[in-house]
Amino acid sequence: MLLKIYKTGKLEAGTDEAGRGCLAGPVTAAALILPAQFTDGILNDSKLLSEKQRSRLRPILESEAICYGVAHVHPSKIDEINILNASILAMHYALDELAKKPEFIIVDGNRFKPYKEIPSECIIKGDQKYLSIAGASVLAKTYRDAYMERIHNEFPMYNWKQNKGYPTKQHREAIRKYGITKYHRKSFRQLPEQLKLQL
Questions:
Q1: Mapping DSSP to helix (H, G, I), strand (E, B) and coil, where does residue 26 land?
Q2: Is 174 a member of any domain?
């Protein structure tokens, strides 16, 4: 069972992102404040859950959370400020969406920037330790997956419905064949051989 709270006595938000390692699509973050009585037997890091489990959890989290927020940062911004800064920006945007102002923020990972003078703590593998970060990871993942499934219809040859923009062999082969789209991150190394000179 994951821990409920990091800072006792504080209205605490957990935040996490999804899609950092993708070649296409946004980086998506969620922030979540859960009530003290919230429990769920399967909630964990979204990467450790099946798609079916994540889909079951999303409406539970949305209905039982005190409040939540989800935000995308799109490829043009990722290319402009780099993926780390874009991930932190997405988390800030998600925190902006919260209906209640948190008194403390717990963040998955080891990098964050101050948000509105609210104290925060980075927690390595926080999505496997605290319910609110795990919940945020599930919301970020499910919202991002839904977005990738929508844009799949525009460019079905990349099969984003299945690979969600990650660098699978099929995705890279489609880039090699068709080039990149407006949804691809131009600052990312789309094909391994891009850095090799053809002599």
A1: coil
A2: no
17 annotated to bind ligand = yes
Q: What is the pLDDT of residues 97-123, one digit of tens each?
A: 999 999 999 999 999 999 999 999 999
Q: What are the residue ranges of helices labelled H in the chain?
A: 51-64, 75-81, 83-96, 131-152, 160-163, 169-178
Inside any domain, residue 176: no
| pTM for this prediction | 0.93
For 31, counting Cβ atoms within 10 Å of its Cβ (0-12 exposed, 13-18 middle, 19+ buried), the class is buried
In a domain, residue 68? The reply is yes
Domain tally for the chain?
Answer: 1
User: Residues with Cβ < 8 Å from 135, sequence gap 6 or more?
Assistant: 14, 30, 32, 34, 43, 57, 61, 65, 68
- Is 16 among the annotated ligand-binding positions? yes
Phi, psi of 20 (to 5 degrees): -65, -40
